[in-house]
């Protein structure tokens, strides 16, 4: 039985709520995704921080609104870099 290579996807990162607290974990995840030949967009979302959030309201809203822009291609995957409230 041979394994087929995994597909390569375009993954757009979002931080719609809080910022990622563990930079090492983010770096490992980015290395792993890139190593699997995935195209990563919006890496800057992993670096932004405003108060307890993953960027200003405008930055976070802009990330989400970009997904609704009919002039731009959608990514294969929109991936939140951290969970929300709860």
Automatic annotation (TrEMBL):
Keywords: Carboxypeptidase, Hydrolase, Protease. The keyword Protease applies. Pfam families: Peptidase_S66 (PF02016). Residues 11-86 form the LD-carboxypeptidase N-terminal domain. It comes from the Bacteria. InterPro entries: Class_I_gatase-like (IPR029062), LdcA_N (IPR027478), Peptidase_S66_N (IPR040449). The keyword Transcription regulation does not apply. This is Muramoyltetrapeptide carboxypeptidase.
């Amino acid at each position: 039985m041979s394994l087929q290579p995994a597909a390569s996807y375009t993954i757009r990162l979002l931080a719609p709520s809080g910022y990622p607290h563990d930079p090492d974990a983010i770096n490992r995840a980015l290395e792993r995704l890139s190593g699997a030949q995935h195209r990563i967009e919006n890496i800057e979302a992993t670096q932004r921080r405003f108060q307890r959030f993953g960027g200003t309201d405008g930055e976070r809203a802009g990330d989400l609104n970009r997904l609704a822009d009919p002039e731009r291609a959608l990514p294969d995957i929109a991936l939140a870099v951290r969970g929300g409230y709860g």
